[in-house]
Design goal:
This protein is α+β, with helices and mostly antiparallel strands and 273 residues long. The strands form three sheets. Strands 5-8-3-11 form a four-stranded antiparallel sheet, with no helix packed on it. It has a four-stranded antiparallel sheet with strand order 6-7-4-10, with no helix packed on it. About 16% of the residues have low confidence.
């Protein structure tokens, strides 16, 4: 006897097949896709602050069920004598006070911390900052006006057994080929290495933060704000020139009418025989 499938059973079977074929939803931290055991580097920056900052008080909040703070990774390069606290579950606190003031006219790192992904079951893992105080030398509370954050992911995948075997075999092969290579080949490789060295040094990044990482509303340089550009000077020069030209024309018109009035008062004596 054949087994009959009702429309409801067929629908459920079809749904099961479709959902099983769908890929698992990506897990993200601040829009960055992560996997289990990945390292998340979280930086908080300040930039383009027009005045010196005297008091900073900021907290970092993270989902402790999904992220684990890596002990000793918290750094505060832009804040001297900062006080930090990493013992609060799900929160990292740091603050700093100075009479001299912190200079953040250019890009400066307030803090940097690293976290390990210990659970990837959540679709979005929470990681953000909250500015409690960011007070300048004028006692103005600036909050997060000049602050932004950057999230970077480092993926660490454990090598498989086959990959380890291939790596060992490649090392053995390279070692054997090195011992049997001629002196001429060694000299040639040294020359190639020496020629490539300057290019490698030139290609080395000078900063971990690129211009693309900085939000457009934060990437302000005060040399472009305080100093008028050449086009501004050019426009001002043209404006002054037009004003002077207009004054000269008005002056000539006035002189013409004065001469005309004088001629009429003299009954056209300048034009008589």
């Amino acid at each position: 006897m054949k087994k009959r499938y009702t429309p409801l059973m067929l629908l459920m079977l079809t749904a099961a097949v479709v959902f099983s074929a769908l890929p698992a939803a990506a897990v993200t931290v601040n829009t960055h896709e992560v996997k289990l055991n990945d390292t998340v580097t979280y930086d908080i920056h300040a930039i383009a602050c027009p005045t010196k900052v005297k008091a900073v008080d900021i907290s970092i909040f993270y989902d402790e069920s999904s992220l684990e703070y890596i002990d000793g990774s918290l750094k505060t390069p832009g804040l001297t004598n900062a006080v930090t606290n990493t013992s609060v579950p799900g929160e990292i606190l740091f603050n700093a006070v100075t009479l001299e003031g912190f200079d953040f006219t250019e890009d400066g790192v307030l803090c940097s911390a690293e976290f390990k992904v210990i659970d990837d079951s959540a679709s979005e893992i929470s990681l953000y900052y909250d500015v409690k105080n960011f007070i300048d030398e004028k006692k103005t509370e600036l909050k997060d006006t000049y602050i932004y954050d950057i999230t970077q992911i480092t993926t660490t995948e454990a090598p498989t057994a086959s990959a380890v075997i291939e790596s060992k075999a490649e090392e053995s092969s390279n070692s054997a080929s090195d011992t049997t290579s001629s002196a001429a080949e060694s000299e040639e490789s040294e020359i190639i290495f020496d020629l490539a060295a300057p290019d490698e040094e030139a290609a080395a990044p000078t900063s971990s933060v690129s211009s693309d990482d900085i939000p457009s509303d934060k990437a302000i340089r005060f040399d472009t704000i305080d100093t008028p550009s050449r086009s501004t000077f050019s426009n001002n020069g043209r404006t002054v020139l037009l004003i002077l030209l207009g004054v000269a024309i008005v002056f000539l018109i006035v002189q013409f009418f004065i001469i005309l009035i004088r001629d009429r008062g003299g009954k056209g004596s300048h034009f008589s025989d």
